[in-house]
Design goal:
The structure holds 2 protein chains of 2 kinds. By secondary structure, chain A is mainly α. Helices cover 66% and strands 0% of the residues of chain A. The chains are: A mainly alpha, B alpha+beta.
């Protein structure tokens, strides 16, 4: 007997109806996407994980206010984003925590890794470094837009509902991020550039 | 970068309108975005579900304690945004009941929202009759039955394992219930509309009927529980 995953709205209704433990379905379903979103805003892995945990608990507390449970993913994404932005504002004195004009990456010597005939592990490390450098070199809103669009597969309309930005502004951010990503990968000799 | 290329990547422009040079650039851009996306998508959360649920269940317990102190009569952890259902006038609503759902595409949101309203009124003590809400599928055009998600609950604080068996599993105890707070075990199961008989299997040996649902003779000297999920012209209780 195949058991389809219950849609978000059904799970939300179940939790609101008293099955508190069913909230774990939503946590498991979205924690990876929320984690990547938090990381795209410039948070380190530990802080990003803390933000996801905090956002999920807040989402449970405020679940009765979720007026469109079909789009729970967007709603909880907004909670996470606000939590991350609050955190970044408080930590704005730290250079790597600013949304605007973030520092570049760690100066990875990508060409060396490839010039040495790197194996798969080295290749993955170089690829990871190139992508991290590209994202770190972008303003936070562009890195976020790239992740939401290309990694999470949201539509521009969904991205607008999540971020509050206009579709045209989001497209510009994604366009800029694509250009930067391509330039970094090209410089690292990755892909068919 | 040429905006025409990005417009094509965003499906705002047809690639056939691009020049051969632009198409080459489009391919390069798409390739870079795809490589980066695939790599980033492989990054996973270290796992916060356990921590989140510990916190959520702890807070739910706090709310329950508050309710009891306030004399609200709630005997279960309260849920966010739901009123207490412990008032005496609601007691008749706790009886086992059938939920009738209309199989039309697009009912999902309405049904789920209706569930948010109905379920608090249906809540009972630690055990309660199964609750159902619909997942309206594209059933109507092809005549395929919609799926109904039913929540089964059993209060069995001493049990170490509870499973669900029924006519919908060929009486194999396929569905393991999850232990929740207060000795309540719960599981959500997708069922097709119809009449379903079921029983809980406690600790792998004891078959027991749902104490809150209608019972029928199992033909072997015991009893099973019966759940009716009927299709009608609207979602209502019966």
């Amino acid at each position: 007997m195949s058991i389809p995953d219950p849609p978000d709205a059904v799970v939300v209704a179940s939790v609101l109806g008293g099955a508190t433990d069913h909230f774990s379905i939503l946590v498991v379903r979205y924690e990876d996407a929320l984690f990547r979103h938090a990381r795209s805003l410039g948070l380190d892995p530990d802080t990003a994980s803390d933000m996801v945990q905090d956002a999920m608990v807040r989402a449970w507390e405020r679940l009765g206010e979720c007026r469109d449970p079909v789009h729970f993913r967007i709603w909880v994404g907004r909670i996470l984003r606000n939590r991350c932005l609050d955190h970044l504002k408080r930590a704005s004195s730290r250079r790597n925590s600013s949304l605007e004009g973030r520092e570049g990456g760690q100066g990875h010597d990508l060409s060396a890794a490839f010039a040495e005939g790197a194996d798969d592990v080295l290749h993955r490390q170089a690829l990871s470094a190139a992508i991290d450098d590209a994202l770190a070199g972008l303003p936070g809103d562009q890195a976020e837009a790239f992740v939401l669009k290309h990694v999470e597969g949201l539509s521009y309309e969904e991205m607008g509902a999540l971020t509050g930005a206009s579709v045209s502004a989001l497209k510009m951010r994604v366009h800029r991020a694509r250009d930067v990503m391509r330039a970094h990968l090209e410089a690292a000799g990755i892909g068919s550039m | 970068m040429n905006d025409r290329i990005h417009a094509a990547l965003d499906d705002d422009r047809r690639p056939v309108d691009l020049t051969p040079g632009e198409i080459r650039e489009l391919d390069q851009l798409e390739s870079a975005a795809g490589i980066a996306a695939d790599h980033l998508r492989a990054r996973r959360s270290p796992g916060v579900a356990d921590a989140v649920m510990r916190e959520v269940l702890a807070r739910a317990g706090d709310v329950r304690a508050t309710d009891v102190r306030a004399g609200a009569g709630a005997s279960e952890p309260s849920s966010p945004g739901t009123p207490s259902s412990g008032s005496g006038w609601m007691a008749p609503l706790w009886r086992p009941r059938t939920v009738i759902v209309r199989p039309i595409w697009g009912l999902l949101a309405a049904a789920a929202l209706a569930m948010a309203v109905l379920v608090p009124a249906l809540r009972s003590g630690p055990s309660q009759a199964p609750l159902a809400t619909s997942r309206a599928t594209d059933a109507a055009p092809g005549g395929e039955a919609p799926t109904v998600f039913v929540q089964f609950r059993l209060h069995a604080p001493e049990a170490s394992e509870v499973r669900l068996a029924g006519s919908f599993t060929e009486w194999e105890p396929l569905h393991a219930l999850h232990r929740a707070e207060g000795g309540v075990w719960t599981v959500m199961v997708a069922l097709e509309p119809g009449i379903h008989d079921y029983a809980f299997v406690v600790d792998g040996a004891e078959w027991m009927a749902d104490p809150t649902a209608p019972r029928i003779d199992d033909g072997f000297g015991g009893e099973n529980s019966r759940l009716a999920l009927l299709l009608g012209n609207g979602m209502r209780e019966s």
